[in-house]
Amino acid sequence: MDITSAVPTGRQIIQGYGDGGFRGGDVAMVGSVLVFPDKTRHWAITNPDEITIESLSMVLAELPTLLVIGCGDRFVPPSQNLLAALKEPGVALEWMDTGAACRTFNVLLTEDRAATAALIAVE
Fold first, then answer.
1. 49 neighbors 60 (Cβ within 8 angstroms)
2. CA distance 109 to 11
3. Is residue 38 over pLDDT 80?
């Protein structure tokens, strides 16, 4: 599914997702990813139960103000512990299924908002 939209130069737009990975900047990545405004990194997470403060340490090191998490092919609510831990440093969390998270992240980039995405790969 192609979800390309206009985005400021140098931003990491998500051009597609599915088949166990993501495509962005005309580069395909297999598996889950962390998408920062200017770079994308692999993320060794395969299900929402694995999403913890520790698994998000690379993201939190950059102190994002807005974190979009794609929790897989269907919505599963985040743990209360994770919500509390993200609230402490002032991170606003948008938690949704991966497809919605990809689309939301792209919209935020077109608005030139400082968002980061943590996305679980889906088939």
1. no
2. 7
3. yes
pLDDT of residue 71: 98
Q: What are the beta bridge partners of residue 94?
A: 68
Q: How far is CA 23 from CA 18, 20, 31, 81, in A?
A: 9, 11, 11, 31
- What's the pLDDT at 2? 55
Q: What is the value of pTM for the model shown?
A: 0.91
Q: How far is CA 115 from CA 92, 103, 123, in A?
A: 10, 13, 24
Non-local (6+) Cβ contacts of 92 within 8 A are: 65, 66, 67
3-17 pLDDT, tens digit per residue, is 555 556 778 889 999
SS3 content of the chain, % helix, strand, coil (to 5): 25, 25, 50
Report pLDDT for 11: 80
Q: Two tokens at 45?
A: 């997470």
